[in-house]
Amino acid sequence: MLNKYPMWKNLMVIFIIAVGFFYALPNLFGEDHAVQVVGTRGVEVTAATQTQIDDLLTKDGIAVKRSDLENGQLLVRVQNADQQLAAKEAIANALGDKYTVALNLAPATPRWLESVGGSPMKLGLDLRGGVHFLMEVDMNEAIRKMEEAKVADFRNQMREERIRYSGVNRTAKGIEIRFRDEANLNKAENFLKTRNGNEMVFTDVTEGDKYALLSSMSETYLKQVKEEALSQNITTIRNRVNELGVAEPVVQRQGAERIIVELPGVQDTARAKEILGATASIEFHMVDQRADVQDAVAGRVPAGSELYKRRSGEPVVLYKEVMLTGDHITSAQPAFDEYSRPQVAIGLDAKGGTIFSNVTKDNIGKPMATLFIEYKDTGEKNPDGSIKMKKIEEVISVATIQARLGRNFVITGLTHSESQNLALLLRAGALIAPVSIVEERTIGPSLGQQNIESGLQAMIWGMVIVLIFMVVYYRAFGLIANLALCANLIMIVGIMSMIPGAVLTLPGIAGMVLTVGMAVDGNVLIYERIREELRAGRSVQQAISEGYGNAFSTITDANITTFMTALILFAVGTGAIKGFAVTLMIGIATSMFTAIVGTRAIVNAIWGGKRVKKLSI
Hints:
Layout: H1 7-24, E1 31-39, H2 47-59, E2 64-70, E3 73-78, H3 81-95, E4 99-107, H4 111-114, E5 122-123, H5 125-128, E6 130-137, H6 139-160, E7 167-170, E8 175-179, H7 182-195, E9 200-204, E10 211-217, H8 219-242, E11 250-254, E12 258-264, H9 269-276, E13 280-286, H10 293-297, E14 305-309, E15 315-319, E16 324-325, E17 329-336, E18 342-348, H11 350-361, E19 367-381, E20 387-400, E21 408-411, H12 416-427, E22 435-443, H13 445-498, E23 503-504, H14 506-535, H15 540-572, H16 575-607
Parallel strand pairs: 5-23
Antiparallel strand pairs: 1-3, 1-4, 2-3, 6-12, 6-22, 7-8, 8-10, 9-10, 11-12, 13-16, 13-19, 14-15, 17-18, 18-21, 19-20
Helix pairs in contact: 1-13, 6-8, 13-14, 13-16, 14-15, 14-16, 15-16
């Protein structure tokens, strides 16, 4: 029978639209004023911390709407902005420097909706306000550091093998190793090729009686060095961004050498830049065993030593002399020993390995401490207008030296979570390569709100005009197209809310406005084809069938080409361009469904299989 959908297809249409509406629903509930609490320097927010904060706020007369602890972050929702500020101050005073306390706006989505994955769309900087940085990593500096490390490595390796050389130096072409005779050159070439695997390429560049090898990084190793430099810098910057207390920061790579940093809600560009450039470092000190800890706490610290505290609050006295700094750490990964006990595997560069070897051989059986040092924003300014930073020092590990250590060693005596945190702290101490800000934008919150209002007005007026035109021009069929258009917008919002990484930007709203016009294009083509079939003398049922059937290929071709263009925009674009491309692609997919399948289901339900002499079209 013409123009009849089977029951399963009707149910499918209803189900898909219902799912879109369900996941669009969280956007109607607005946001709560909230305070976000995150542990720093490896400290975790626990259920005990949550209870402490809830009791504290209740005691201060601040009503807590809801308190959620998830992934080590605590989000405390309060009634209004005044209570939010009071709650932040009370929590910050109670918890101290080991926690970051920040203001936030949290979605007011009901728990039952959250339990099935319901959440509102995330807003981009141009709608929410904040700071955008595009940072470029100096890969030449990263390569230079690695080549300098290799220079030291080659020297040590040839000394160990008793190969005589006259010099090892970096040049514009790579690392040049010079020899006095051919025999040592050949011996060094065979040995270094075996010792350095596929990392380095060695070429004989002997000229006359000047015997020399030229070493350069292989393409694979060069790519690995660049990847590690970018990845390490992203990790470091992400940890520094956490100090700003930003609710939903974006730190992601762009291309091979650039990093995008977006900080919603941050308006002070100078402060953001200073925090991103703030330093954190690691130092290794020997523990002063001769010191009495209680005397040190009372103020009687031996000369040449200093009193510090461990993460647990336990005091410990260390010698002031720095045995090794974190500048020499090249890698830090959590691992397990042969008994499945957590540990952190540390890798040092050649210079650091030599220093550490000499230090540890003379201190076997003695305890050594790892001191973590960072500079944290105090929220105050110095007289010259710069941000006032507070130096925080904390002993994160004390271990006994069991044997002479070299470039690679492990730190033991940690729990699994402590080993993960320590590895992260060691890696995030310093940028592996310098970064420069090549693009900077600041969006004010009032401008963001104005953008939202302007975008919504454009969408509403566009929809009103389209809805009126369709009803006037196509009558009952125009009303069906309007229902499909409303369903289309609901599905776009629902899908944007379902995708974890999707962010709605101002160009994204433009994409939705564009979709409003494009969504009815399909219906216009179908309806005009139905009119042509009716004028040609076809019956109503045949005209409907031919209209949908023959217009399908035209609609598909037009939408596929537009979709491919949007896909290219998403692949090569950045930030706002991606936002436009995402909403456009989603809008194309949903408009295809609503214009062809959705309206067909309604038309079939009203006119399909019936004796109809005239259509309201």
